From TrEMBL:
InterPro entries: DUF7557. This is Uncharacterized protein. It comes from Halorubrum tebenquichense DSM 14210. It comes from the Archaea.
């Protein structure tokens, strides 16, 4: 698995999103899923004429 180095500000922002001591990988995975879902929605929305 690749290693990712986060800045202090990014870690603080992730800490603000943590619920019940979630692991950072859980939060990042959730954020990626949200991003992908929004991207898919925008892509499909642009196909409608």
């Amino acid at each position: 698995m690749p290693q990712v180095h986060l800045g202090e500000e990014t870690v603080e922002r992730l800490d603000a999103l943590r619920v019940d001591d979630e692991e950072y990988d859980e939060i990042v995975t959730e954020l990626i899923n949200i991003y992908e879902a929004e991207e898919l929605t925008l892509f499909r929305g642009s196909d409608i004429e």
